[in-house]
């Protein structure tokens, strides 16, 4: 069913879609290419929620290419996600494709958004357009793991990020951890943060490390120049503080970007009075250990966040994995040995069989300066 040209054009659309990785959320990254006689006459990608969808950019460019006429006969549109059929913040792309007289539409993957979910494809077919679905489906889905998962399960895609020595330690016994990994890894973490809707950490990490947990434009390297800093979102900084211990003297309060405090008890009114306006708070139930119940946390975050990054100590990272909320782990491994007194990477139960340990698959391995970054899929 697919010609080499089809595959080339969809690959190009996927490449375009990836340009939105840092800016589209909570919308998915989508790319679109319009061809006539196997030549690209229009292309575009979704840049920002509220802004035009990928198809609209590509159609506008194609119209200009053919000299301003609205009718684009004998054309094929390649779209990485099923064209939308609903009026959201923007009108339906399926309608725009029909209006412009596109002849054939190639779709990589169906849009799992319940408001679309096959309706876009149906609208196009009912208008007499040939629609071919499934070209580079895996590749196109992988651009939006969070959007795809959340639309299907109402839960966010969860990545556990860790930095460790060769002997799997995250700090010396006295808590000193600056720096285990090198500048290249730390810059990569900044990019990772910039791609996520929310970062989650525990109050212990905040009390010990006093982190900022923000995206620092000057550390993003080429990315900041390429995107223009104004377009970069700051992820929501989520602090799990079951006993409401955190005070606004923590450094993260002094950085103006959203914070969500999640506790099982209330904070004193005197404390709440000191919070800047970008701080919000929710109370959730505790689990059997008195910690914030992760089921409640992820159900809450799943209402608005596609992808969540866990940047926490061994206990929270371990719970997220053992309670089967983790989809992926990114491990920055430094060529250092910190010794057996150092802090452990992940707290897990005392397993008695190999069958019981978490099942992990290596997806990608990359050198970053002197460190190695492992991307690992966690199977539930
Ligand atoms: C497309 N092309 O480029 C994107 C689509 O609020 P809106 O109007 O921006 O709609 C957002 C929804 O539209 C989003 O949840 C997803 O289902 C779809 N995204 N669809 O045809 C695009 N970004
Ligand atoms: Zn659309």
Question: What can you tell me about this protein's structure?
Answer:
The chain has twelve helices and 16 strands. It has helices at 4-18, 54-65, 93-99, 119-126, 137-142, 145-153, 183-194, 203-209, 222-227, 269-273, 294-301, 314-322, and strands at 31-36, 39-45, 75-81, 104-109, 130-133, 157-164, 169-171, 198-202, 236-240, 259-263, 279-283, 307-310, 328-333, 343-344, 359-368, 371-379. Helix 3 runs parallel beside helix 4 (119-126). It starts with a helix and ends with a strand. The model has no long low-confidence stretch (mean pLDDT 94). Ligand AOF binds at residues 27-28, 30, 46, 49, 53-55, 81, 83-84, 88-90, 93, 111, 113, 116. Converts 2,5-diamino-6-(ribosylamino)-4(3h)-pyrimidinone 5'-phosphate into 5-amino-6-(ribosylamino)-2,4(1h,3h)-pyrimidinedione 5'-phosphate. It holds the Pfam family dCMP_cyt_deam_1.
Structural class designation: alpha/beta
Number of helices: 12
Taken as a percent bin, the fraction of beta residues is 15-25%
Gap from first CA to last CA:
35 Å
Ligand roster: ligand AOF, zinc ion
Label the overall shape.
elongated
- Sketch the major β-sheet: 9 strands, mixed
Overall pLDDT metric? 94
Radius of gyration: 23 Å
Order of helices and strands: HEEHEHEHEHHEEHEHHEEHEHEHEEEE
Give the uncertain stretches in residue-range form. none
Helix content: 25-40%
Widest β-sheet, arrangement of strands: 11-10-9-8-12-6-13-16-15
Instruction: Give a count of the beta strands, DSSP E runs of length 2 or more.
Output: 16
